[in-house]
Amino acid sequence: MSTVRNVNAPPPEHVMVLDGQGWVGLVNHMGDETTAVNAARVSFGKMQDQMGERDVGLLRYLIEHHHTSPLEHVVFTFLVHCPLFVRSQWHRHRMWSYNEISRRYTEVDITFYVPPVVREQAEDNRQASVDSGNLDQDELRRLITENNERCMQVYQTLLDRGACREQARGVLPQNMMTTFWGTVDLHNLLSFIQLRDSDHAQWEIRQYAVAIKQLVRPYLPNIAKIMKW
Questions:
Q1: Is the pTM of this model over 0.90?
Q2: How far is CA 130 from the centre of its chain?
Q3: CA dihedral angle for residue 210, residue 211, residue 217, residue 218, rounded to 10 degrees
Q4: What gap in Å lies between CA 61 and CA 59, rounded to an integer?
Q5: CA–CA separation, 44 vs 218, rounded Å?
Q6: CA quadruple 205, 207, 212, 217: dihedral sign
Q7: How many CA atoms lie within 13 A of 70 on its CB side?
Q8: Percent helix, strand, coil in the chain (nearest 5)?
Q9: Would 158 disulfide with which of 77, 84, 168, 173, CB 3.0-4.6 Å?
Q10: Catalytic residues
């Protein structure tokens, strides 16, 4: 008999992020480093079962010279629990395939992200922030929590008075947590990690990129070394 599981609970193979408020889990994968090597060598009519030293060199060549199509035969599927604003940044990576929990269909398990540290706006970069240590963390986190509670009260009142879910959800803030499936090939996964595990990326989404490296490293040991993970 099949088992129905709550999608807002992490799968067995996962990494917690955002001070335990979010997570990313590896649901499934297809192929490995040998798959990419065999795809690259199909032009010569050759295949093999295990990686050798020359194959590691070939992987390095493929990555360094942007010969990416062999990497696209390796695929990973993740389950991600993150704030809406992280989801929006993530979905800018359009070569992923996504399916997300819908608040048109369910109002259960609604939670909100409260930053472990509230950062200041960077003076020299409109889209960056800094942890200066100058802010009253307890007060700002209290304000965020109070707003979460107010928004949730309005949302519940709308539902209680007959409003539909698809409109009532409009009062919920950007720090509401959401859950989505994301499937991506290895080429585009490497691109995601390069862009999001960067000093230029927002701290929150960077935590997910670091966690994904931890999840896929056992399946990509040589690529992890090549990419200096």
A1: yes
A2: 22
A3: 160
A4: 5
A5: 29
A6: positive
A7: 22
A8: 45, 20, 40
A9: 168
A10: 196
Tokens of 44: 């010569």
pLDDT digits over 28-65, tens only? Answer: 999 999 999 999 999 788 888 888 899 999 999 999 99
What residues contact residue 137 under an 8 Å CB cut-off, 6+ apart? 117, 118
Amino acid at 216: V
Q: Which two tokens stand for residue 164?
A: 């539909």
Q: In the CATH hierarchy, which fold is given to the domain comprising 15-113+175-226?
A: Gyrase A; domain 2 (3.30.1360)
40 near 62, Cβ under 8 Å? yes
C-beta of residue 63 within 8 angstroms of C-beta of residue 222: no
**CA 149 – CA 202 distance, rounded (Å):** 25
- Measured CA to CA, the distance from residue 102 to residue 7 in angstroms comes to 12
Instruction: Locate 54 and state its tokens.
Output: 């020359």
